[in-house]
Design goal:
It contains two helices and 22 strands.
C-alpha cells in the first residue's frame, strides 16, 4: 500500500483542524467574549463605544481616552450540550454493506468548562494621539469525546490555545471624527486527536494526534463619528489571517496490514480565519437611557478549505463555510453616578453547512440573552459583571468521514447525527483610570 503512509498524515491533520470550532458560546470558531461590558448588552454597541474595553471591536475607540486606562476581564463558559446518533455507519474492507459504527450513541457535554480572558490598555500621548494594546483569546477551548463514542472517528480530544495581541494607534482628527489602526498578531497552539478504524471490527481502534503551532498576522482599522454629544456611529474592519500550523501527525495503534503506518511524521496545514466588518451605533436618549445596535458581517467563506502539506504533496480539504451576519440590540440604564445596568439580545447564525457539518463542529444558530452592570466605587475604579444565556438550535451533523481515502483499504464512514444545547456565560471585569 505505497500511498497509505502519505494519506494518513493528511487524514490526521485535516480531521483534527476541524476542531477550530464548537464552543456553544460562539458560532464557527469566533468567540465574541472580548468585553464584559459588551456581553452585558449582547455586543450591541461596541464599535461606537469608547475606552480600551472596545479595542477588539474598533481600534478608534481609544482616540478620546484621558490619561491611562487599563481593563481586565474573564468570561467563564458553562455548557450543557449533546450529540445524538441517528444511524451513523462504517463499511470496513471486505464488509459487503455498511454497518453501525457502534459505541455510545449519545455524547454528553463534549464542550468542557472554559475561561476566555481579556486584557486591554490605552495611553494618551498627545492632544490627538493615543496608543493601545489588546490581548485576548478569541479561539480558546477544550472539547472531549469518550473513546467509545460513536463520534470517535471524527473527534476525541481537542485543545486549542490562542493568543491575539493587537497594538493600536488612534487619532482624534477633530471633535467629530476618530480614526484607529492596529496590528493583529495571533499565536495558535493545538493538540487534537481522533480515532482510526482497524480493518476488523474485532480489533481496537488506532488513533491519530496533531500537535502544531505558529504565529500569523493581520490588521484592523476603524472609524468613529460623533455628530452630536448624544449620537455615536462606529465601523471597523478586521482582516482575514492566513494561518500556518506546523508540527507533527502521530499515528498509533494500527494493527495487521496497517501496523507499518504507525509513527510520527512532520506535517503542516494552511487555512484562513474570517474577515469581520462591524457597524454599530449608540444613542443617548436622556440622563438614564442609551440605545445600542450593532451588526457584524463575518467573511467565513475564506475558510473554504484546509490545505494539508506532507511528504506526498499538497491536499485541499473543502469546508463549505458561508458568510454570516450577526445582529444585536441592547440598552444601558444609568441609575446614578455609581451604577449602570445593561441588557441585550443577539442572533448569531452558524457558518457551517447542514451537509458536511462535523462532530468536531456541532454548531448551530444561536440566540443570546444577556444582562449586566457596572459599579464605580471611586472615580478611578469600575467593576463590571455580566450574565448570558445562549440557546443553540438543534442542527444536523451529517456527512462523510472516510478513512484511508485513495488507498486499497478505503473505509467509508457516514455520520448521521444531530447536536443541540445551551450555555451560560458568567463574566467579571475591572477597569482602572490612572
Amino acid at each position: 500500500m505505497p500511498t497509505l503512509r502519505h494519506a494518513l498524515p493528511a487524514l490526521a491533520l485535516s480531521s483534527s483542524l476541524l476542531a477550530l470550532a464548537g464552543p456553544a458560546a460562539a458560532a464557527g470558531f469566533y468567540l465574541q467574549e472580548q468585553s464584559v461590558k459588551g456581553l452585558g448588552r449582547a455586543y450591541s454597541g461596541e464599535a461606537a463605544d469608547t475606552g480600551p474595553e472596545s479595542l477588539w471591536w474598533n481600534p478608534a475607540s481609544i482616540a478620546g481616552v484621558d490619561g491611562v486606562q487599563a481593563y481586565a476581564g474573564a468570561n467563564l463558559i458553562l455548557s450543557q450540550s449533546e450529540l445524538d446518533d441517528h444511524g451513523s455507519t462504517i463499511q470496513r474492507p471486505g464488509q459487503p454493506t455498511p454497518g453501525p459504527i457502534g459505541g455510545a450513541s449519545t455524547a454528553h457535554n463534549p464542550l468542557k468548562v472554559g475561561v476566555v480572558p481579556n486584557l486591554d490598555a490605552a495611553w494618551r500621548v498627545s492632544d490627538h494621539v493615543a496608543l493601545g494594546l489588546a490581548v485576548s483569546a478569541p479561539f480558546d477551548f477544550i472539547t472531549k469525546y469518550s473513546p467509545d463514542s460513536f463520534a470517535r472517528y471524527q473527534a476525541l480530544t481537542s485543545r486549542l490555545l490562542d493568543l491575539d495581541v493587537q497594538p493600536t494607534v488612534a487619532v482624534r482628527v477633530n471633535r467629530f471624527i476618530d480614526l484607529g489602526v492596529g496590528l493583529d498578531a495571533q499565536y495558535a497552539k493545538s493538540s487534537l486527536s481522533s480515532a482510526l478504524p482497524n480493518l476488523s471490527s474485532a480489533l481496537p481502534d488506532g488513533s491519530n494526534t496533531l500537535n502544531g503551532d505558529g504565529w500569523n498576522y493581520g490588521w484592523t482599522a476603524g472609524v468613529q463619528l460623533h455628530p452630536s454629544d448624544r449620537f455615536s456611529l462606529g465601523a471597523s474592519y478586521r482582516s482575514q489571517i492566513d494561518h500556518t500550523l506546523s508540527g507533527t501527525a502521530s499515528i498509533q495503534g494500527l494493527l495487521g496490514p496497517l501496523a507499518p503506518e504507525n509513527g510520527v511524521l512532520p506535517a503542516s496545514a494552511k487555512f484562513s480565519t474570517p474577515w469581520i466588518v462591524v457597524v454599530g451605533g449608540r444613542y443617548i436618549l436622556n440622563d438614564h437611557w442609551a440605545l445600542n445596535a450593532q451588526i457584524q458581517r463575518v467573511g467565513w467563506s475564506v475558510f473554504n478549505s484546509i490545505r494539508v502539506q506532507d511528504a506526498a504533496g499538497l491536499t485541499a480539504i473543502p469546508q463549505g463555510y458561508r458568510d454570516t451576519t450577526t445582529e444585536a440590540i441592547g440598552v444601558d440604564y444609568t441609575v446614578n453616578r455609581q451604577w449602570t445596568l445593561r441588557s441585550g439580545v443577539a442572533y448569531d447564525p452558524t457558518p457551517t453547512p447542514d451537509i458536511g457539518r462535523s462532530a468536531r463542529v456541532p454548531d448551530g444558530n444561536r440566540l443570546l440573552f444577556t444582562v449586566g452592570g457596572s459599579y464605580r466605587p471611586t472615580s478611578r475604579i469600575e467593576l463590571e459583571g455580566a450574565l448570558a444565556y445562549v440557546h443553540l438550535q438543534r442542527s444536523p451533523v451529517v456527512g462523510p468521514a472516510t478513512a484511508y481515502a485513495g488507498t486499497p483499504v478505503v473505509t467509508p464512514i457516514l455520520y448521521d447525527a444531530s447536536a443541540g444545547g445551551d450555555a451560560v456565560i458568567i463574566s467579571e471585569g475591572v477597569k482602572f483610570r490612572f
